[in-house]
Amino acid sequence: MRTYDDTFSGQRIYPGKGKLYVRGDSKIFRFQNGKSESLFLQRKNPRRIAWTVLFRRQHRKGISEEVAKKRTRRTVKAQRAIVGASLDVIKERRSMRPEARTAARSAAVKEAKEKKAAAMAVKKEEKAKRATVASKGQTQRIVGKQGAKGSQPKPKATTR
């Protein structure tokens, strides 16, 4: 007994059942019933219609053989050194007690703050030095944007 598959739904068509549809380019389509033919002619995607074989295959519905769960591989974590710190340094830091860690952190923060304050003091000193030099010399003239670029000053109008 010869059976065909429905072009749209993928279900079996037994002899004496179904419809045959021949398109203009002589391609043959077989349908189980008017429902699947209608959906095909509406250009519906069988992967989006829940009762078709294609949808069920795509969404893994009704597969009884796959009851046995696949064994998953456990990922093994390996410790590696990071650039600028060797593995033993990392392990040592990890095993540090929380009190020691906070003390080390506060010391580092304090050191960074002192460094920043020293840099700011130097900057302030330099700024004060520049201000005294400017005040000793001539008073600074306000220069426009074009003058700062080095353009020629506008000539004064001689006629009215």
From TrEMBL:
CDD domains: Ribosomal_L24e_L24. Residues 120-129 have a biased composition (Basic and acidic residues). Keywords: Ribonucleoprotein, Ribosomal protein. The keyword Ribosomal protein applies. Residues 120-160 are annotated as: Disordered. The keyword Ribosomal protein applies. InterPro entries: L24e/L24_sf, Ribosomal_eL24, Ribosomal_eL24-rel_N, Ribosomal_eL24_CS. Residues 1-66 form the Large ribosomal subunit protein eL24-related N-terminal domain. Belongs to the eukaryotic ribosomal protein eL24 family. PANTHER family: 60S RIBOSOMAL PROTEIN L24 (PTHR10792), RIBOSOMAL PROTEIN L24 (PTHR10792:SF1). This is Large ribosomal subunit protein eL24-related N-terminal domain-containing protein. It comes from Apiospora phragmitis.
